[in-house]
Specification:
It is a single chain. With 270 residues, the protein is α/β, with parallel strands linked by helices. 32% of the residues lie in helices and 30% in strands. The strands form 4 sheets. The protein has a 5-stranded parallel sheet, with helices on both faces. Strands 10-9-8-12-11 form a 5-stranded antiparallel sheet, covered by helices on one side. α2 packs across α3 and α4 crosses α7. The protein is elongated, with a radius of gyration of 21 Å.
Length: 270
């Protein structure tokens, strides 16, 4: 198994130490170095050419975004996983443009998810695609990233709600299928995969239930079971059951059970 040559960039020694310890759990991750500031990181990245960089955003003087900008034009840019203390909502503005992000303090489960994404990106040779999107985002920014994040946080709630994905891009053996979110009947989990049901078709997407929920507008999509999300616009009938559960009949003919833990969802139809 080839090693994932990894560089850690953070101005907090304790953060570097903590991440180093957590990464010891992954036998295919090889830490090739660490940097305490952005300028040093640029130099080391060009010299060592790591596969992966865990990059802190908030560093004095030369922050994480400046590091990425400085690498524009390089033949190869490593995969980037942001590590930050920023509010999670603000990071969603960048989520689609980097391979992944981690919030401090880094949780073991989230780190494992990030490493899984790294492995997939490397095996599917998606690094170039991921980083070109990141570079495009940063090049098109008229204001410094921190100011852009601040402006985002200050937006009225009705504007913020536009962040939800209107489409799902599903990759399968080199092909990309674009599914309109409004066409989705329901989504259920199968291990680490999401089954996206659209009419008579089912698309498979590698994603966690938690991440999928963040991508969908809660006014339209709601959990009705631990492993099921339903499009409320597709519900045609609600049938209560004597044991406290109830059943939803969708326009596609599928019947879904609403567990008692999620019975408040039924109130939306009453």
């Amino acid at each position: 198994m080839s090693k994932i040559r990894t560089l850690l960039v953070d101005d907090e020694p304790l953060a570097v130490r903590g991440l180093t310890i957590r990464l010891e759990a992954f036998s295919d991750v090889e830490i090739v170095g660490s940097c305490s500031n952005g300028r040093e990181a640029v130099k080391v990245i060009k010299e060592l050419k790591p596969d992966l960089v865990f990059l802190d955003i908030q560093m004095p003087g030369f922050d994480g975004f400046s590091v990425i900008r400085s690498l524009v034009g390089e033949a190869e840019i490593p995969l980037v996983v942001f590590v930050t203390a920023y509010d999670q909502y603000a990071l969603e503005a960048f989520e689609a443009h980097a391979l992944d992000y981690l919030l401090k303090p880094v949780e073991e489960d989230r780190l494992a998810e990030a490493i899984t994404r790294v492995r997939e990106a490397m095996s599917q040779r998606l690094a170039i695609e991921q980083n070109s999107r990141l570079v495009e985002l940063l090049e098109n920014m008229d204001t410094p990233p921190k100011e852009a994040l601040t402006a985002l946080l200050e937006q009225p709630q009705e504007i913020r709600e536009e962040r939800f994905d209107p489409h799902l891009r599903i990759k399968d053996r080199g092909h990309i299928t674009i599914v309109d979110v409004s066409d989705v009947d329901f989504i259920d989990a199968a291990g680490d995969y999401m089954c996206i049901h659209v009419g008579e078709k089912t698309h498979i997407l590698r994603e966690t239930m938690k991440t999928m929920e963040k991508r969908l507008d809660p006014k339209i999509f709601q959990r009705v079971h631990r492993s099921t999300i339903v499009n409320l616009d597709k519900v045609k009938e609600v049938r209560p059951h004597s044991n406290g559960e109830c059943f939803l009949t969708l326009s596609c003919g599928m019947e879904l059970k609403v567990s008692r833990s999620y019975k408040d969802v039924v109130g939306r139809f009453l």
